[in-house]
Amino acid sequence: MVSLLGKTPDELQEVALEAGLPRFAGKQLAEWIYVRRATSFDEMTNISLRGRETLKARYTIGRHAPVAEAKSTDGTKKYLFKTPPLPPLRGRDRSDSGDENQSEGQYIEAVYIPEDDRATLCVSTQAGCKMGCKFCMTGTLGFHGHLPASEILNQIFSIPESATLSNIVYMGEGEPMDNIDEVLRSLSAMTAAWGCAWSPHRITVSSVGYPKGLKRFLDESECHLAISLHNPFAAERQQIMPIEKNHPIKDVLELIRGYDWTRQRRLSFEYICFGGENDTPRHAKELLRLMRGLNCRVNLIRFHAGVDQGFPASDEQQMVWLRDYLTMHGLTTTIRRSRGEDILAACGMLVNALQKEP
Questions:
Q1: Which of 14, 18, 109, 173 is catalytic?
Q2: Listed residue (153, 163, 160, 157) closest to 183, CA to CA
Q3: How does pLDDT run across 96-105, given as a tens digit for each residue?
Q4: Is 277 a catalytic residue?
Q5: Is 109 a catalytic residue?
Q6: DSSP for 81-110?
Q7: CA gap 35, 25 in Å, rounded
Q8: 119-159 pLDDT, tens per residue?
Q9: Which of 157, 236, 267, 330 has a CB 3.0–4.6 Å from the CB of 231, allowing a cystine?
């Protein structure tokens, strides 16, 4: 059945009319779904009983609880969701997936990260990923489907800690800009006055640099942007990130420079540190050259080796040196604290390790 989660008020008005309800019932549906967070049509007491029964027969709200969870010693929680059947794969997506049958649905993961007065949820936008970054465990899953907005939003709405969330990052499984229609639809539901009315500055969307979707994101959203960089030299970046071949980081930066980053909207670059391979003085100087004139920050991330991927991790001393060198030369740089590594919940470690039938 069709999910209502992710639909706009105009679309919900059409749903209401098709169910024999007055047009204004679309606004009531939006309030129940996004403001009151209803999980069943039975809760919608200002809609007629007959109307609720018709809706129940034709639609689903789109809410379903995680099927498993794991808790880290640092308080991080990882949730496993099983999706309903995803839209059929086509063209290149299908050849990349290895899946002939999408009818059983897919498993995806989301990560809840509490810290002091903040609570961040990292959500997935695809089942698996086709970007093929050599250091990322998620890439070993292959690609198994684009998540509709209902499944992106369900991760946010259906974890037990949903009401405590202060921030959301689109940094889980998948490349958000490769699923831009559904990502933008989910962002609209989170930030619009008719939806959850969140400030877009509470949400960060990550990308390896997928230009077509990235341009739409920059034009149609005010949410923060994080670019996965990991090496400033094109030839070296291509060895670990295949996206560099067809969409060079220099072109991505040229696109980004066309937008205003002097206001509240934040631009950051994610940089996993590999010992001796991208944390040297040579790389530091090239990073400064590459970022010259951009109002941005660099987040250094310790490499999390969950499987034998053949990459050395930088030691803490070298990461501190790199942070201090870049900051001293005018490029604001931080070392991101790793969370949830013991449950495979840290950056690049989502491989549906909790997977099991509900």
A1: 109
A2: 153
A3: 555 544 557 8
A4: no
A5: yes
A6: EE-SPPPPP-HHHHHHH--S--TT--EEEE
A7: 15
A8: 999 999 999 999 999 988 888 888 999 999 999 999 999 99
A9: 236
